[in-house]
Amino acid sequence: MELTETHTLPVSQQRTWDALNDTEILRACIPGCESIDPDGENAYLVTLSAAVGPVKARFKGRMQLTDIDAPNAYNIVFEGQGGAAGFAKGNARVTLEADGDASTKLSYTASAQVGGKLAQIGSRLVDGAARKIAGEFFKRFGAQVGASGGADTAHAGDADDAGDGGGTAADGAAGHNTASTEATDNESGGDATKRKKSWTAWISKS
Description:
This protein is α+β, with helices and mostly antiparallel strands. The protein has one domain: Alpha-D-Glucose-1,6-Bisphosphate, Chain A, domain 4 (2-Layer Sandwich), CATH 3.30.530. The protein has helices at 13-20, 23-29, 117-120, 123-154, and strands spanning 2-9, 33-38, 43-52, 55-69, 73-81, 87-98, 104-115. Strands 1-7-6-5-4-3-2 form a seven-stranded antiparallel beta sheet. It is globular and about 45 Å long. The N and C termini lie close together (9 Å).
């Protein structure tokens, strides 16, 4: 499986990086994600449920961050097991690029191998499921960072110290390639800088 996409997010590059390294935000945004827990330096254990065509399973996996260049990019190496459903392993490169003072382009290229029942259902279904999950993630993630981005816009001088937990969503600012219709209102984006846990390669579980 190969997947390459670019999304524009309505907040600064630093704010986007902080959100990508906040496991609470990511757990709320990743479809089917149950947990993201530390497992050594820059490594995390992930549990999530996913359906790919007729195959439904609960996946447990591990991912490692490498070549970290904050707040610009990192690589993700991942592997996951879904019991009888099969397995997935691969890597992804995530990069951030400022697009003005209050907008960021997030690009990623992921490649993965799947085995077991996942491999038997065909690459079209696997790729289609991966793109659907990615689309849902960025819709939720855009709404999350858009909400905290609204606070940034209203209090430009407060930047990274914002502890107000994100106010109103930034009126359609999550446009471009992301939607902002399914924000998880009880999650706080403002304290992202206080946590250094990292996100998971959920793409691989598709």
